[in-house]
Amino acid sequence: MSEGEIKRIEAILKKYHIDYEKSKHEAVFTSEQAARIRGVSLKQGVKSIILRTDEGKFIDALVPANLRVDTKKLANLIGTKCLKFASPEEVLEETGCEVGAVPPFGILWDIPVYMDKKILENRKVDFNAGLHTVSIKMKSSDLKKVLDPIMCDISKE
Asked: Which letter does DSSP use for residue 85 in this model?
């Protein structure tokens, strides 16, 4: 993802009059590294996980960074037999982002967004904005407003 595509995220946030903070930092590749460099708790982060259905359709599953996505629960919710994590190549092809840098903005790629309800337990959330070196912090309620996701219980320890 390029700086130009990050501007697409910022344009969406501005369209909805959303206050946010963008920061640049050294490259991070795990949720733990990201929380440490941002100076926040791990659960404040949002992981965006691109999954593929049996039918070959992609979805964006959002969970707190301290948890994992429960693919069985999500598959049942969607009504598909099996969900698989998209390969790094598929993620790059579908989103233009590397695994670990995908922002929680499936709306950019016209794929459905499923947001775990636990994300809203944090007043503010942080996430990578398409690059390993750029983060955005904003209110969790504003993220929900912008994405209009399918709210669900899809996380596990």
From this structure: E
Q: How many structural domains compose the chain? A: 1
Judge contact between 18 and 146, C-beta under 8 A: yes
Nearest by Cα to 74 from 56, 59, 57, 90: 59
Q: What is the CATH number of the domain that holds 132?
A: 3.90.960.10
Both tokens of 74, joined, read: 């999500």
Q: Report d(CA 81, CA 120) in Å as an integer.
A: 28
pTM as predicted: 0.95
What confidence tens digit (pLDDT) does each residue in 19-60 have?
999 999 999 999 999 999 999 999 999 999 999 999 999 999
Buried b (16+ CB within 10 A) or exposed e, 73-92: bbbeebebeebeebeeebbb
- What rounded mean pLDDT belongs to the chain? 94
Q: Are 129 and 135 in contact (CB under 8 A)?
A: yes
> What are the pLDDT digits (tens) for 57-71?
999 999 999 999 999
| Domain span at 88 | 3-156
Under 8 Å between Cβ of 42 and 66: yes
